[in-house]
Specification:
Blueprint: H1 3-40, H2 47-68, H3 75-110, H4 113-139, H5 144-157, H6 160-163, H7 172-194, H8 199-212, H9 214-218, H10 222-235
Length: 236
């Protein structure tokens, strides 16, 4: 490896470490208080939620490992672990759907059908966008410049469930900027090193803005009303 390649690998390592740390901070911002209360209360939450948390955190750990392996010259291990990551993503989606529908069923009887349908929209659509991005990343696995950026977007999508819980940042626009920070940082790195911004990041900015505003745009639509009302009957 030449001196230039070492410097380039080092800068990429720092970039993905920074992004990984930011995403872990997002998780702590939203779920940290609940975890603290869980510890203080003796872990009285259901086993299902503890398993869900382990699987959820596991994905972010896997992303961080996969992001830094190429910087250490272990592309072979990155490829092998990537096969495991694809099946782990299926586990994330299956578990996410189970928790989403179980929580939806609970809310119908405890907070009412309207609020239950409102809070269902975000996690259910997350379980559509996340596997779509992971599948696209897997499809482009032989094109690393596209692959790694799609994986970043897929992982970042999962952090919105945490950020929406942060009540001490009341401004919706502020939360959106915070959520987009990893993409903006990555775009800045692209421009600084290559004088261009990869189209995947531009796509991510548009997609994430739409995702962030989905409750406003989708909740009162006829399609969502019919589907969520039907789901009330199915799980209720």
């Amino acid at each position: 490896m030449t001196a230039y390649q070492k410097i380039k690998s080092s800068s990429k390592l720092k970039l993905y470490l920074l992004i990984s740390i930011l995403m872990f901070l997002f998780i702590l911002m939203g779920f940290g208080p609940d975890f603290y209360m869980s510890v203080m209360g003796g872990f009285h939450q259901s086993l299902m939620l503890h398993i869900h948390a382990i699987i959820f955190i596991g994905w972010f750990v896997l992303f961080a490992i996969q992001a830094i392996l190429p910087a250490f010259g272990r592309l072979d291990l990155h490829i092998k672990l990537g096969q495991f990551a694809f099946f782990y993503a299926i586990l994330v989606v299956a578990n996410g759907l189970y928790v989403t529908l179980t929580t939806f069923q609970f809310r119908i009887g405890n907070v009412g059908e309207h609020l239950a349908r409102y809070w269902l929209l975000q996690p259910l659509t997350d379980m559509i966008v996340f596997p779509a991005l992971v599948s696209a990343a897997f499809y482009y696995r032989k094109k690393p410049e596209i692959h790694k950026r799609l994986m970043l977007l897929a992982t970042l999508v999962m952090t919105i469930v945490s950020l929406v819980r942060v009540t001490y940042i009341p401004m919706h626009g502020a939360k959106l900027v915070i959520w987009l920070a990893p993409i903006i940082i990555a775009m800045g790195y692209d421009y600084y090193t290559k004088k261009i911004i990869h189209p995947v990041y531009m796509f991510g900015l548009v997609l994430f803005t739409i995702i962030y505003c989905r409750k406003t745009w989708l909740f009162d639509t006829l399609i969502w009303t019919k589907f969520s009302t039907w789901l009330v009957v199915v799980v209720g």
